[in-house]
């Protein structure tokens, strides 16, 4: 069973997955991840009568995203892994966001807010039943995004929400919308699903040395 947590943006989420979704709890716009995350995890475990011994893997949305949120999520995930002697699976946030989107969208650009008018973004293409990455995680000014891809795209993520007016103008004739019959998954749920796939393939992360992907280069302390 996978316990997945997401604190990469304004929402705070936890999900349980075993072959399919068991349960998820999302607190929208929390911005108090350090206050609510552990309570949220306790709640989703309690509601489903799940004990730590029932968990096989802890997964976390690993960025890019909110610096503070990512640090909180990674610290809690690593703490649970060490306390419960479990492996860690870190799932890139932009990949997780792509897997929130139905494959019928065809192409997706996922975005998280960065500094001022910058966003973190990545491109994905739906191939059969999989979102395939077509770019690395990148940070750019939103004004530069229209030229990075000439295909029709579904735009998704908090970076899109924050800059929606500008991005809708930039992608005026190329922005894909979903029919009313299609819905989006919460990021914590997509993170759990991806983590289950990675774990089955033996793709686990080093608990002690894993760090969030901030997607920015920080100056060295000794420089």
Quote the beta fraction: 25-35%
**Which whole number gives the mean pLDDT?**
95
What's the CATH H-level superfamily name of the largest domain?
ATPase, nucleotide binding domain
What structural class do helix, strand and pairing data support?
alpha/beta
Number of strands: 10
**Under the CATH scheme, which architecture of the largest domain would be assigned?**
2-Layer Sandwich
> Main β-sheet: number of strands, strand sense, barrel status?
5 strands, mixed
Number of domains: 2
CATH C-level category of the largest domain: Alpha Beta
Order of helices and strands: EEEHEHEHEEEEEHHH
Strand line-up across the major sheet: 3-2-1-4-5
Envelope shape: globular
Low-confidence stretches: none
Look up the CATH topology of the largest domain.
Nucleotidyltransferase, domain 5
Helix content estimate: 25-40%
| Cα gyration radius (Å) | 17 Å
Cα(first) to Cα(last) distance is 44 Å
Keywords: Transferase
Domain Gcp-like: 32-146
GO molecular function: transferase activity
Protein name: tRNA (Adenosine(37)-N6)-threonylcarbamoyltransferase complex dimerization subunit type 1 TsaB
């Amino acid at each position: 069973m996978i316990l997945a947590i997401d604190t990469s943006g304004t929402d705070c989420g936890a999900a349980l997955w075993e072959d399919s979704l068991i349960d998820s709890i999302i607190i929208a716009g929390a911005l108090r991840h350090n206050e609510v995350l552990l309570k949220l995890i306790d709640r989703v475990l309690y509601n489903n009568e799940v004990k730590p011994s029932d968990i096989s893997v802890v997964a976390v949305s690993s960025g890019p995203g909110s610096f503070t949120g990512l640090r909180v999520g990674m610290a809690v995930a690593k703490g649970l892994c060490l306390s419960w002697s479990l492996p860690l699976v870190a799932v890139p946030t932009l990949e997780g966001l792509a897997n929130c989107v139905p494959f019928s969208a065809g192409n997706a650009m996922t975005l998280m807010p960065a500094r001022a008018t910058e966003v973190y973004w990545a491109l994905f293409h739906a191939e059969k039943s999989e979102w395939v990455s077509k770019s690395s995680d990148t940070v750019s000014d939103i004004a530069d995004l229209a030229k990075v891809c000439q295909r029709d795209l579904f735009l998704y993520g908090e970076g899109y929400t924050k800059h929606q007016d500008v991005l809708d103008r930039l992608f005026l004739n190329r922005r894909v919308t979903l029919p009313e019959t299609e819905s989006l998954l919460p990021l914590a749920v997509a993170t759990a699903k991806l983590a289950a796939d990675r774990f089955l393939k033996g793709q686990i992360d080093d608990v002690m040395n894993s760090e969030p992907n901030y997607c920015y280069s920080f100056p060295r302390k000794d420089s």
